[in-house]
Amino acid sequence: MRHQIWLFLAVAACSQESPGNEVDLRPAATEIATVQCERVFECCDTEEVGRLFQAVDDVETCVPVLESYLTTFVLPTIDDALQRGAVSIDEAKKPACLSSFKATACESFVPSPNLSMFATVDCRPWIQPRLEVSGFCQEDFECISGFCARDADAVEGTCKLAPVKDEPCLVGRCSSDFYCANELCSPRLPTGDDCSKNDECESNNCVDGLNGRVCGTEPTACQG
After folding, report:
1. What is the pLDDT of residue 90?
2. Does residue 140 or residue 11 have the better pLDDT?
3. How many other CB atoms are there within 10 angstroms of residue 202's CB atom?
4. No. of H helices and E strands in the chain?
5. From the centroid of its chain, how far is CA 214?
6. Distance (Å, rounded) from C-alpha 216 to C-alpha 91?
7. Spatial distance between the Cα atoms of 76 and 39, rounded to a whole number of angstroms
8. How many Cα atoms within 13 Å fall on the side-chain side of residue 104?
9. What is the 3-state secondary structure of 114-163?
10. Of 57, 122, 126, 217, which has the highest C-beta tally within 10 A?
């Protein structure tokens, strides 16, 4: 049976009141799954679809797979953030988020039914962060700075400004344009430079080259 997930609309960031006004985000799970599955079958050939999903033959069989993932793993995390007042929802901004997936070029499209989608430029206004720097957080999307400094084995961290070039890494992380090297943030490497890990590369893709590992081009889900 489909999970019954009810989310509560947090009040404006300046208010100290508890969340109110029930919002049912189950339709959003269906909408996100539908628009992403439509793009998969617009952009991918049969082999590529098979690599992305098992036992999915068309949009109609794809949607329940993504919808189930969203309702099982993603929406409960947003629900918890809402209950804590860490985020708020502006339903009027949802169409722009969904439209951003439709507008993405096939060579750049990768299905993303996870929390990271809510931190994108077009989706962030829909699920809005409310936590200022130094606020206790559990996920990046809860912080206005977009960075929750949290140890991997910890439940809670603190909202911080993401460190940039030559600044000390925070819990082994840096701003998105940088990676952690010797405890300091360094600019990510361009295609062709030597690398050892994906996060060192601008493309987030360190691959085997003729003389060792190098930064490759940005990976894509579909070329068909």
Report:
1. 93
2. 140
3. 16
4. 5, 11
5. 26
6. 38
7. 25
8. 26
9. CHHHHHCCCCCCCEEECECCCCEECCHHHECCCCEECCCCCCCEEECCCC
10. 126
Residue 39 near residue 109, CB atoms below 8 Å: yes
Q: What is the pLDDT of residues 152-165, one digit of tens each?
A: 899 999 999 999 99
**How many Cβ atoms from other residues are within 10 Å of residue 35's Cβ?**
18
Which residues, 6+ apart, have CB-to-CB distance to 106 below 8 Å? Answer: 39, 42, 43, 222
| Backbone φ, ψ for residue 187 (5° rounding) | -60, 140
β-bridge mates for residue 185, sequence order: 180
pLDDT band at 133 (very low <50, low <70, confident <90, very high): very high
Phi, psi of 140 (to 5 degrees): -60, -40
pLDDT tens string 78-118 = 989 998 999 999 999 999 999 988 888 887 777 777 888 88
141 within 8 A of 87, measured Cβ to Cβ: yes
Give me the residue label for tokens 């509560």: 8
Token match 């090297």: residue? 181
Ramachandran angles phi, psi of 145, nearest 5°: -75, -15
**What is the Rg, in whole angstroms, of the alpha carbon atoms belonging to the chain?**
19
Indicate the Cα dihedral angle 38, 41, 44, 48, nearest 10°. 110
